[in-house]
Amino acid sequence: MAEEKGEGPEDVDTIGVYVGGRNIDGERHGEGWAVLPNGDFYQGCYCRGMRSGKGLYVFKNGARYEGEWRKAMKYGVGTMTYPDGSRYEGDWRHDLKQGFGAYYYPNGDIYEGAWFKGKRHGLGTYLFAEYQIKFMGTWVEGAIEGPGQIIYPRVRYHGSWLRGKPKGPGCFVFDTNCMQHGFYLLMKDPALEEFGEGEEEKEDKEVKEERQEEGGEEEVEIDETMGKISIWRARNVTAYMAEFLPPEPVPLPIHDSIPSLSEESIVTDIIQFEIPSVAAEEEGVDDSDSWLMHRQQFLEETEQKG
Question: From start to end residue, where is composition biased (Basic and acidic residues) (predicted)?
Fold first, then answer.
């Protein structure tokens, strides 16, 4: 999709159509609008020939991005609406979702939390709209990983996940003020073994192990969740006691090797980056429903826990 990459500088008058300000070097600078050769449309701020500041970019496939730009890339706070009706509102860096943001899916599902290099990564919550079930925990490179909890209408589960599947000790907490303790085991999916796929996975694992022993192949990480399902094994039931709950999820450390553009950005009297307001836009609107309020709380909590 075109939105995954920056479109680059637009400083050639003979390519596309441009109406707006220019600097003394003839580069697009200030406010203006442009129709690109591929049919895309942009209206907003430029700096030295590149989109910088606030602007609206409409893709010919129907997608649109409205928010902040730096050096022709989505950078800052903005909203991306996709052709299928899904929408992302939140932080961007180098044309990728990064920071805190909320993604609204066409089926009504909502993810709200941390992003890193375009993937869900860190603390977040995911609402399954059809069943009104919410997951709260951590993601690693787009997959649920580590401690978390699932909140059902009358019960919640506390435990750990491995590549999107519950695994290890955990407990169900019921609204009757009691707890069921046990653990999730990863078992081979009977539906796969019915077609012989279980044996193929076993043979493939044995071949990889033999090659590693012979030194003919580098160590390959084996996905222990592949072809398996999680099975709950209950052990006992007790009264509710908070000290029996598994560890809570914590923010993940982020190691970003991509240099920041903030120091290189040029701010003029025309091109300014305003801090987004977290106040409700209309009187009577619940602040808790604002993703910007959640974003501020998320950043404060992350800083405190870090």
Answer: 204-214
